[in-house]
Amino acid sequence: MTDPTTAVLAEIDAMRDDILQTLSDVVRVPSISPKYPGLDADDVLGGESRANQVLVPSYKAAGCVVDMWAEEPGRDNLVGVVKGSGGGRSLIFNGHIDTVPPGDPATWKWGDPWSGRIENGKLYGLGSTDMKAGIVAMVKAAEALRRTGVSLQGDFILESVVGEESMDHERGTTATIRRGYTADAAIVTEPTAFSGPPALAPCSAGVFWLRIVVPGKATHVMVRGNLIWPGGAGDRYGVNAIDKGFYVYEAMKKLEADWGMSRNHPLFPAGHFNIGVNLLSGYPPGPPVPFIVPHECVFDYVIIYRPNDDADAIKAEIEEYLNRVYDLDPWLREHRPAATWMHQWPAYDTPVDHPVCSTLAASHQTALSREAFWEGFPAVDDATWLERGGIPSISYGPGNVMDAHTVDESIDCQQVIDACKVYAAMAMNWCGVG
């Protein structure tokens, strides 16, 4: 008699074409987050719902009780529950259905960001890696369990949510928790194959968005000599905000270099925790012409910090450092730049010896006959909000997150099948078979 695990893994191999066809079908439905900055929401609203509708038949084939609802019109979350027989631990698999915008469609293979086509073992299309592959793999794992007659003791919950790309967890993952969907543990099926095969990612980096507005004093551009040479009139005439901005920039580069030597973590590569400026603008009052000394320079920083760092302490460290920098400059000492903490995405941090981590590692070994390895998740994901909802969480999924948000995004087809097997084994090992 074949044991349940062997039967389920064989069934997933037999389902390969169906799994990849379902993934292709979902990728072909544009599901751009309508709250992504710079978009006309009306142009893309409803895509998340339509993509989740494509998944409903697979949810039903897995035996789920399906719940589809929207916190905002046109943005439906999809949750399915396979009710356990009792006595086992409950488990959530979570993924987000929304994507970033594609950019210029003409730059994509076949001129189509949503082709869903397979070439040389890869399935192409926006959202294939981030993260429709993970969603399809988790749903098809549940379907394989049902096809082979395996029932679980604990509840098995599948979540395909909206809003992650635009940091809108209140409409997505956090909304599922408020609706009552909780469990003993959760796995977020984000792509974790950043330096090889998919890794087990028990923690993530934390992220701040910091905006620094450096003031200047507008004047005619022809007086620049007075602003930069000894003996000139200096700030009596004007102050170039971009010049002062780059004084701040160089100081922040020095702090970043200090971080590079001191901010380390065993699950992250050297230099991962950094202070990077990613938007920069300097301009005069009125029309944006170069004939007036700019009166303002704006830097937008992304600050990436360790999962075990105290977020308030990070803010205090940077603010204190900047104040010391300003004190050394006569203009900035009297005209302090404004620092605004625009947004924070906190880290999640689950101990590697937590049962959800050890059980997932064992399930990986069972399903793929090779040992799993561990890395921190280099970006951010909804495991943070699950953990803050009281659900111990880990990330594990097919695809390289470095391929996300890129032209010709694609997913290795075998990784999808492998992830499906790991998810099925995890469900049996965690929830119990009975």
Q: Secondary-structure blueprint of this entry?
A:
Blueprint (H helix, E strand, L loop, with lengths): L3 H11 L1 H12 L13 H4 L2 H15 L3 E6 L5 E7 L8 E6 L21 E2 L2 E3 L3 H20 L8 E6 L11 H6 L7 E3 L17 E10 L8 H5 L12 H22 L12 E9 L12 E10 L5 H17 L2 H5 L3 E8 L9 H14 L14 H6 L4 E3 L14 E3 H19 L3
Parallel strand pairs: 3-6, 3-7, 7-12
Antiparallel strand pairs: 1-2, 2-6, 4-5, 5-13, 8-10, 8-11, 9-10
What does this protein look like?
The protein is an alpha+beta fold. The chain folds into two domains: 4-204 and 348-431, 3-Layer(aba) Sandwich (Aminopeptidase); 206-345, Alpha-Beta Plaits, CATH 3.30.70.360. The protein has 13 helices and 13 strands. It has helices spanning 4-14, 16-27, 41-44, 47-61, 128-147, 173-178, 224-228, 241-262, 311-327, 330-334, 355-368, 383-388, 413-431; strands spanning 65-70, 76-82, 91-96, 118-119, 122-124, 156-161, 186-188, 206-215, 275-283, 296-305, 338-345, 393-395, 410-412. The chain has a six-stranded mixed sheet with strand order 1-2-6-3-7-12. α1 packs across α5 (128-147) and α2 (16-27) packs antiparallel against α4.
Number-wise, the strands total 13
CATH class term of the largest domain: Alpha Beta
Going across the biggest sheet, name each strand in turn: 1-2-6-3-7-12
Count of separate DSSP helical elements: 13
| SSE-based structural type | alpha+beta
Bin the strand percentage: 15-25%
Secondary structure: helix percent: 25-40%
Task: Output the CATH topology of the largest domain.
Answer: Aminopeptidase
The CATH architecture assignment of the largest domain turns out to be 3-Layer(aba) Sandwich
**Averaged pLDDT:** 96
* Domains (count): 2
The low-confidence parts are: none
- In sequence order, what are the helices and strands, one letter per element? HHHHEEEEEHEHEEHHEEHHEHHEEH
